Each structure stands twice: as structure tokens, then as C-alpha cells.
């Protein structure tokens, strides 16, 4: 599955290389970027990262009618502490421009995509994203992952390092990841198992911020995962399936189905 996503990003990387070779320079976002990790752990934070996600390989089209501005305004009103924005176009029907469309809400933004090249990081600096997703399994060489992680920090972006298992977690810790996201999805079957979060979070250390992602859909699951030590939970599909995603978040946080 991840190899399919890697191939899908090759055209984007080629275009970024072409732009670089013609002298194009990405102008960094001029306004302040709200702290992503701080928003997840601030006293009183909901710990919910609400995601704008139009489609996915596992679910197909989820919600193509609501705009980023509409969904994310609803999320903000329902108490989300941060927003995750899918920017991958082929499989998730996202766009990099979605980040700027919701920046005015003032919440920290995570660019969720398949980042494999330094120029993608540089392109992200021209957006209002506060954080950027790095998936351990996208890198065969841990040194390449470490280099991109360091580049994110240099550019003022908080790297959210995603892991699926113990080996991924070993690598995330090896490069000094401060924000670790556990993905509950099995990439072969596309099924989810919250046990991944519950197992791996036992290895959480002081100074680390942990996020649980995929398959989280009920108030009871939110409560269980937070009680286990997860600082925040990223929720997308369960919210986007509602005609009004903000209302979906309000109902979830209120313990309603």
C-alpha cells in the first residue's frame, strides 16, 4: 500500500525538481504557526485532532460535498485542538491549498501526506501548516528519515512520526521523535485494531507526545485510549461521514453515537 502511495508522489517530486531548476524558491508562510504539540497537551485541551478527509483507499469517497472551510469551522466550534488536512490528491482527493483555506481558524494544522523528498518539506513551509507527517515505513534507510526529520525542525515544522509496529517505533525513537503517531490500520487488510495503540503506548517516555490514529469512532474508544496514555487522537472518517462533520465531532465528544 505505501509503495503505491510512494509512486503516486513521484510526479509531485518531479514537478518540484523542475521548479527548483528554473530558480523557483518557496516563500515561507509569513504569519505565526500555532504550536501543534503544545495544543495537544495544553491543560483543558480536548486532545482531538479533527481531520478533513474527502476520500480514502479503504473507504472510497467519504464526503465530497462539504468544503474544508465548512468542515473545519465546525470542528473548531466543537472543540478540536488541532486540524489534520489531507493534501494527497490521487487517493484522498486532497490539495495543498486546503491548508490556506482553513488557516484563519487559528488552530494548528497538520499536513497529512506522503512526504518522501526534502522539496516537499520546503513546499510545506509556504503553507500555514504547523506540523507535517513523516511515515517511518516510507524510508528504507533510517538516515534518510532522520535527515528529513531534522529538515522539518530547521524550517519550523513539527514532524509527526507515524509508526505501525515495534520496529517502526524503534526507528522513531532512534531519530529522537518528540511526536509519535500510532496508526491502527493493517496495511495488508486495511482493517483497524486499537490494540496497536494500547500495546505500543506502553513504551511512551517522558517528553514524548503520542497520538492514536485510524479506526477511532466512539466516545468509549476515545476514553479508553486517553486513559491508556495517548495524549491526542486523530479522527477523520467517523466525522466526515456526517453531513455536518462539526456536528459529528460534537456528538462524539458528548458520548453520542
Q: Architecture in CATH?
A: Alpha-Beta Barrel
The CATH topology is given as: TIM Barrel
- Unreliable spans are none
Helix/sheet category: alpha/beta
- What's the overall geometry? globular
H and E order? HHEEEHEHEHEHEHEHEHEHH
Number of helices: 11
Give descriptors for this structure:
single chain, 257 residues, alpha/beta, TIM Barrel, eight-stranded parallel beta barrel, 11 helices, globular
Description:
This protein has 257 residues and is of the alpha/beta class. It has a single domain, classed as Alpha-Beta Barrel (TIM Barrel), CATH 3.20.20.70. The protein is 39% helix and 17% strand. It has 11 helices and 10 strands. It has helices spanning 2-21, 36-41, 68-77, 97-102, 118-124, 142-154, 166-174, 195-200, 219-227, 237-240, 245-253, and strands at 48-52, 55-56, 60-61, 82-86, 109-112, 131-135, 158-163, 179-183, 209-213, 232-235. Strands 1-4-5-6-7-8-9-10 form an 8-stranded parallel β-barrel, surrounded by 4 helices. The chain is globular and about 55 Å long. The mean pLDDT is 95.
Helix-strand layout with pairing:
Elements: H1 2-21, H2 36-41, E1 48-52, E2 55-56, E3 60-61, H3 68-77, E4 82-86, H4 97-102, E5 109-112, H5 118-124, E6 131-135, H6 142-154, E7 158-163, H7 166-174, E8 179-183, H8 195-200, E9 209-213, H9 219-227, E10 232-235, H10 237-240, H11 245-253
Parallel strand pairs: 1-4, 1-10, 4-5, 5-6, 6-7, 7-8, 8-9, 9-10
Antiparallel strand pairs: 2-3
Briefly say what this structure is.
With 257 residues, the protein is α/β, with parallel strands linked by helices. Helices cover 39% and strands 17% of the residues. It has a single domain, classed as Aldolase class I (TIM Barrel, Alpha-Beta Barrel), CATH 3.20.20.70.
